[in-house]
Amino acid sequence: MMAVDQSVHGVAPSLSAKVVGSFAYLTIKDRLPTILTRAIDTIHRNKNKFFEEYGEEGIQAEKQTIHLLSKMRNELQTDKPVLALTDDLQDTESWNQYLRRHQGPQGDEESVSWFKSPWLYVECYMYRRIHEALWLNPPISDYDVFNEAKTQSFFESQQAVMGLCTYLEGINKSTDELSKNQLLDNFNKLLLVSLWGNKCDLSISAGQKNSQKTSPLESLSSLQPFILVDDSNMVWSTLISAQRPGQSGKIRAGRVDIVLDNAGFELVTDLVLADFLVSFGLAREIHFHGKSIPWFVSDVTANDFQWTIRQTMAANHKWMSKSGAQWQSYLKEGVWSYHDHPFWTQPHEFCDMAADAPDLYATLQGADLVLFKGDLNYRKLTGDREWDYTVGFDTALRGFGPAPLCSLRTLKANIQVGLQPGQGEKLTSQDPDWMTSGTYGVIQFYSPKSEQ
Ligand code: F6P
Ligand code: MG
């Protein structure tokens, strides 16, 4: 992406498919229709299941849903205007208000279309329309078209999951002997495992399988050169400074929120990191934030979250089932909690959260650290805009900062800020796809406290 000049206070333009040949253009032209076609095929393949479960009504619903998805695919491929939602759900009005804002004071419907509007908006909109197509067709309203892909990604990552749970058991056994350095070393390892777990995402692959085959612990050192920003030391010191002397002389750790990304192997890496933080007194509680509807193919829903813990518990692998049982009891005790605010499945840039979802912003202000997993969250943190590579992460956040935060992201979209002068240009000369292949990663930290 060429560096664009910005006035000091200027806000860079949004990435969009208006730029023919750009990654946004190729995503909307090729990848999104592929994802839609896979969704249609999945529904068609389950036709008999719908008939067995719901009889003729199920067949009607299957047919009508496919009709709605095919209609949307045609709108997308012929750059038709974005349409208002008609499903009268909790967030329908917020989506339609957002559309009207984009149409401007004249309400010019033609001006908001798949290739002319911001990429972030239309890509999020597509997943919300998939939800509408199902919702409008009971009895298959709550069918998750991406469920098969997510569960398959979990099953195909079993070797890596076993390796990770075995590693966790190894360090959990030695809770009292670990020196500070060993604690820090294990923290860094599990933070990296959670970062690289983000490579396993089915949206970038347009649904192609990309589960984790080998244990990620063995590849951490070979992946180190691909980390472009490494603020892991800031994450560690934020956790340590959140520890306070509690009652009876015990240390009381802080609260860590994890804004989740993908189900499957990536979710397991996040659960293992969360287990480690609690077991070693680096967090007293963990709030997980997932999606309230199926999203970007592999993103975690409440159903995926519970299913993954149940599956881990039921595994016939000693340390997997022990980990799963531990995670289940953390949830029962309230040490871990799962939340799915509708804001995470709306198109907003995070700098709008305080205005558009003040309740969620206030919730995040209660955390001592918020970890944002993955590429879409990074795009929303930085507004999915054509920033220069060297623009500061704080500048790109444009005032978003409910708490100290860190993005753990592998690069799958052509947006990256906070690099050193020349670093982006050097990467482009070495590897033209560095921004979108998922090969590179960042551990990028920001604290609002540093602004005071
Ligand atoms: O372009 C790839 C893409 O579809 C992006 O739109 C999105 O940011 C990414 O996949 C999803 O990746 P992640 O699961 O890491 O958010
Ligand atoms: Mg995702």
Structure description:
This is Sugar phosphate phosphatase. Residues 27-427 form the Damage-control phosphatase ARMT1-like metal-binding domain. InterPro entries: ARMT-1-like_metal-bd_sf, ARMT1, ARMT1-like_metal-bd. Helix content is 47%, strand content 9%. The two termini are 33 Å apart. By secondary structure, the protein is an alpha/beta fold. It has helices spanning 23-45, 47-54, 56-77, 92-103, 119-135, 147-155, 158-172, 180-197, 220-223, 232-241, 265-279, 302-314, 318-333, 353-356, 358-365, 375-381, 393-397, 423-430, and strands at residues 227-230, 244-245, 251-252, 255-259, 285-289, 336-339, 369-373, 405-410, 441-446. The protein folds into two domains: 12-135, Transcription Elongation Factor S-II, Chain A, CATH 1.20.930.60; 152-451, Uncharacterised protein PF01937, DUF89, domain 3 (Rossmann fold, 3-Layer(aba) Sandwich), CATH 3.40.50.10880. The radius of gyration is 22 Å and the shape is globular. The longest helix is centred in the first third of the chain and has 23 residues, at 23-45. It contains 18 helices and nine strands. The chain has a seven-stranded mixed sheet, sandwiched between helices. It has a two-stranded antiparallel sheet with strand order 2-3. Magnesium ion binds at residues 201, 203, 261-262, 296, 298-299, 374, 376. 6-O-phosphono-beta-D-fructofuranose binds next to helix 16.
CATH topology (level 3) name of the largest domain = Rossmann fold
Give the structural class: alpha/beta
Number of domains: 2
pLDDT average, as an integer?
94
Q: How would you summarize the topology of this molecule?
A:
Layout: H1 23-45, H2 47-54, H3 56-77, H4 92-103, H5 119-135, H6 147-155, H7 158-172, H8 180-197, H9 220-223, E1 227-230, H10 232-241, E2 244-245, E3 251-252, E4 255-259, H11 265-279, E5 285-289, H12 302-314, H13 318-333, E6 336-339, H14 353-356, H15 358-365, E7 369-373, H16 375-381, H17 393-397, E8 405-410, H18 423-430, E9 441-446
Parallel strand pairs: 1-9, 4-5, 4-7, 5-6, 7-8
Antiparallel strand pairs: 2-3, 8-9
